[in-house]
């Protein structure tokens, strides 16, 4: 009940905001015609649930609930829908992770991520006394000398990118000097974590779960926390309310004022559980455990998003030669401290002639190699040339599976520990 005043404040701020009426419009669509009165959790849970589709109905300026001069961060995030709406943020609070790292002894960090995504993190790192340098993940090899030059003791990035970077560090001394790994942005699978331990044997793992649109960390898991091999996190104390709604994590930003209030926002992440617990690290409060994604539209691995719709659109260029079914399986092989990712594309050809199939198989594999893009700046063929991905494999099914989930994309392998 102690959070009721905070929930009441953020709802009133969003609904009565003089800069924007977007939330009033959302409420009106749900037949709410006056500012909701929040006196209990039941009142709050009767409010509309927001998702990415709802937000993209409004332009960034229509959603701006603060004077533009007070905005200190503007970012885009593709998230679960693949659409990149802008989010205006203020008083961003990515300091909890920095505080934990500094308390553990971290002093100099290399962040393998795009500049526009982490500039706020860097400023907050510096406020906590952590020197941080941003490095372009598309130029990993060029950043290898930086580890020794700045005496880095911390690396941050997606688990796959950190492993790739570790493969490039030939100096054992450099790898032994890395004492902390900040893992964020994609699932950390058990075999990847094992390989990271082999590459950086003295490094402690700090897991960071966040969403760009929140402008702050949602969950933290440190090296002393329970359940290291699962999607287990402590809810960030920086001002977030979390709900379990039909097995999906919903979050609400409690900080007022804000440039863009998110209320009952669907994260797209499935919950195993959410509740109050006591952890071996000393945390007493709300924790949660994630079990996967609520959709089958994409898999995030090796620092990029592999999207079903991108692959399906390339297959569609072949015309009416396939049945309307495309499934994609992503496999990650990690051995000897190295990793390689393989895409298996499953389609149903209409022509079953063996000679036709052989020619079609090679043409489809080549088309995917040349046309598939994993981000605005990352081509699939470049990832294959670098050895991060194998050539895609094409599997022909004799018929559309009858008893199956909707075609989509999924990771095949051990259970991920979401970060």
Question: Please, could you describe this protein's structure?
Answer:
The protein has 419 residues and is of the alpha/beta class. The protein has a domain of 120 residues: GMP Synthetase, Chain A, domain 3, CATH 3.30.300.30. The chain has 14 helices and 21 strands. The strands form five sheets. Strands 4-3-5-6-8-9-10-14-13-12-11 form an eleven-stranded mixed β-sheet, sandwiched between helices. Strands 19-18-17-20 form a four-stranded mixed β-sheet. α9 runs parallel beside α11. The relative contact order is 0.12. The mean pLDDT is 84.
Provide keyphrases for this structure:
single chain; 419 residues; alpha/beta; GMP Synthetase, Chain A, domain 3; 11-stranded mixed sheet; 4-stranded mixed sheet; 14 helices; 21 strands; 31% strand; globular
Number of DSSP-assigned strands: 21
Tell me about the biggest sheet?
11 strands, mixed
How many individual helices?
A: 14
Task: Indicate the CATH topology of the domain at 298-417.
Answer: GMP Synthetase, Chain A, domain 3
Strand order of the largest sheet: 4-3-5-6-8-9-10-14-13-12-11
CATH superfamily of the domain at 298-417: ANL, C-terminal domain
Low-confidence stretches: none
Q: What is the class of the domain at 298-417 in the CATH system?
A: Alpha Beta
């Amino acid at each position: 009940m102690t959070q009721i005043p905070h929930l009441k404040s953020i709802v009133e701020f969003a609904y009565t905001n003089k800069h924007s009426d977007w939330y009033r419009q959302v409420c009106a669509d749900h037949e709410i015609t006056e500012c909701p009165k929040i006196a209990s959790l039941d009142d709050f849970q009767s409010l509309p649930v927001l998702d990415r589709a709802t937000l993209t109905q409004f332009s960034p300026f229509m959603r701006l609930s603060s004077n533009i001069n007070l905005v200190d961060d503007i970012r885009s995030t593709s998230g679960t829908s693949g659409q990149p709406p802008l989010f205006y943020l203020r008083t961003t609070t990515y300091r909890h992770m920095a505080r934990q790292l500094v308390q553990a002894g971290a002093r100099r960090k290399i962040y393998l991520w795009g500049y526009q995504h982490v500039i706020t993190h860097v400023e907050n790192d510096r406020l906590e006394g952590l020197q941080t340098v941003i490095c372009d993940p598309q130029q990993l090899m060029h950043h290898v000398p930086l580890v020794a030059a700045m005496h880095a003791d911390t690396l941050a990035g997606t688990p796959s990118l950190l492993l790739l970077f570790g493969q490039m560090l030939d100096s054992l001394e450099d790898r032994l000097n890395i004492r902390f790994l900040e893992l964020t942005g994609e699932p950390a699978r058990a075999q990847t974590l094992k390989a990271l331990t082999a590459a950086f044997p003295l490094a402690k793992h700090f897991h960071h779960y966040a969403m760009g649109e929140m402008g702050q960390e949602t969950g933290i898991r440190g090296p002393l926390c329970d359940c290291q091999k699962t999607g287990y996190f402590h809810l960030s104390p920086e001002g977030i309310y979390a709900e379990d709604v039909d097995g999906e994590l919903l979050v609400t930003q409690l900080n007022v004022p804000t440039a863009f209030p998110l209320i009952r926002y669907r994260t797209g992440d499935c919950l195993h559980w959410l509740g109050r617990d006591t952890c071996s690290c000393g945390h007493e409060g709300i924790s949660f455990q994630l079990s996967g994604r609520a959709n089958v539209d994409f898999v995030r691995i090796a620092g990029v998003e592999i999207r079903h719709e991108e692959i399906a659109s390339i297959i569609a260029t072949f015309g009416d030669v396939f049945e309307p079914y495309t499934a994609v399986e992503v496999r990650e092989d990690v051995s000897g401290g190295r990793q390689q990712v393989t895409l298996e594309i499953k389609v149903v050809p209409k022509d079953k002639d063996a000679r036709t199939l052989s020619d079609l198989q090679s043409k489809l594999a080549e088309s995917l190699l040349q046309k598939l893009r994993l981000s605005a700046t990352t081509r699939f063929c470049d990832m294959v040339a670098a050895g991060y991905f194998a050539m895609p494999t094409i599997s022909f099914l004799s018929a559309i599976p009858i008893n199956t989930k909707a075609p989509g994309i999924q990771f095949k392998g051990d259970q991920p520990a979401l970060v």
